Amino acid sequence: MIHFRWNAVWFVLISGVFLYGCSDDELVEATDAGVQDATSINSGCLETSECETGHTCIGGVCVVNPTTEVRLTDNALDTEVSNAGIQLDCAGSLQEAPAGPEAATVYGRVDRFGGGLITTGMEVSFFKQSDWMASDCRQQPIEQQNECFRTEKSDWSTISTDPEATNPTIPTSCEKHWDCPAGYECVEISNGLSLGCEPQHGLYEVEGIPTNTLLVIRTRNMDPIYEKKWKDTYIFGVYLYADQVDSDGRIKSNAMMVSESQWKTVPNTLLVPGGIRKNNGALGGRVRDCRSAERSSFTLGNATIGLLEPGRATGYFNDDEANTVPLLDSPGTDMYGRFTVVDIPPGANTVAAAILQTDGAIASLGSESFYLVPNSLAIVSFPGKQPILTK
Question: How does the average pLDDT of the chain come out, rounded?
Fold first, then answer.
């Protein structure tokens, strides 16, 4: 489970221009005066010789070579394990579909990337990814695509509800998030001297979602009062393994929203003049290995990622999953496999990743396709397609 609870907002001064909250005209001026716009540079390739020095061609994308040996983390315990157990057989392809029910009830919470309001009143919708990628919305002018995609009808939709509505039993104190009921987190309470369980995330449940099928989860705010507080979020490559459906026909997979403050904080932290420009968007996700009969997939640290249509900055994080501020000098993913890319042009795109193995060889983690809806966040986790759930 990703826990995003970092509430501070960074303000960055670059070349004497105050970039937070600037107008569109100021934004363009700041961009022209700042770093080179990498969004106009396609990173496509057929072989490594077509890439810049220090890059490898993976899945048609030039990816910067990792320089630090891969780290493997067991997310059930959040502890590093031996690299010798890494599993990469699913890289670049889907694993064999396991036996099990053809559909399931999917439930979970609407996670929040960055600080913000409780994620209740959010519409959570599921789509088959094959249908989503062929949507007629792609043919609309860029200025109209956001509204088209966010209002596209789904056969599987619901609205997230207040976690307090379930009347959960709240412990008198807590130490970890998993000490709290669903939708709650263990945070500092008002006196600042102790920890308590407080509601943070809306809960959802949708019936009849197909298993063993690539899916997209769209999450959007439905309350006009808070429309400027959130950005729509699309999770690509969601895959519900049929053999993980429980005896009640249920399987857990969380949705996600990103707050407006975090939308501005991350590019400012990465020193991107003007932040994410109008109609552009961002990508986030995790890099993980493949599941097996013996275990779920583990996250991969020190992996590097690249995009076919790059953004203006790529960021990685530290080994504190509650900290959602990227680092300027990190060479690759943290122990939780997290990465972000900001100010990406809208449209069809591909993300690819690489790791440095213990023998010094660079290994491909394959690539994943996604479609960046204007003014939205896309999330991709690969090559292993397992959600990370701490409770």
Answer: 88
- Please return the burial class of 23, using the count of CB atoms within 10 Å of its CB with bins 0-12, 13-18 and 19+: exposed
Which residues are bridge partners to 104 per DSSP?
Answer: 209
Tell me the domain boundaries of the chain: 13-36+65-160+201-383
Q: Whole-angstrom Cα distance, residue 391 to residue 389?
A: 6
The pLDDT, as a whole number, for residue 77 is: 84
Nearest to 385 by CA among 220, 172, 233, 216: 216
Long-range pairs for 169-178 at CB < 8 Å and ≥24 separation? 170/197, 171/197, 172/196, 177/1, 177/3, 177/390, 177/391, 178/390, 178/391
Q: Are 205 and 349 in contact (CB under 8 A)?
A: no
Q: How many CB atoms lie within 10 A of CB 3?
A: 19
Of the candidate ranges 22-31, 106-115, 242-251, the one whose mean pLDDT is the lowest: 22-31
Q: Span 129-136, mean pLDDT?
A: 95
What is the predicted pLDDT for the residue at 192? 67
Residue 267's nearest CA partner among 376, 343, 380 is 343
Q: How confident is the model at residue 390 (pLDDT cuts 50, 70, 90)?
A: low
* pLDDT-wise least confident of 76-90, 187-201, 284-298, 375-389: 187-201
Query: 10 Å Cβ neighbour count for 221?
Result: 20
- Rounded distance, CA 245 to CA 100, Å? 8
Do the beta carbons of residue 372 and residue 281 sit within 8 Å?
A: yes
Distance CA 15, CA 370 (A): 34
Q: Mapping DSSP to helix (H, G, I), strand (E, B) and coil, where does residue 256 land?
A: strand
**Which strands, in side-by-side order, build the sheet including 347-356?**
304-307, 347-356, 362-372
Do the Cβ atoms of 153 and 218 come closer than 8 Å? no
| Residue 217 β-bridge partners | 126, 235
Write down the pTM of the prediction. 0.88
Average confidence (pLDDT) over 273-292:
96
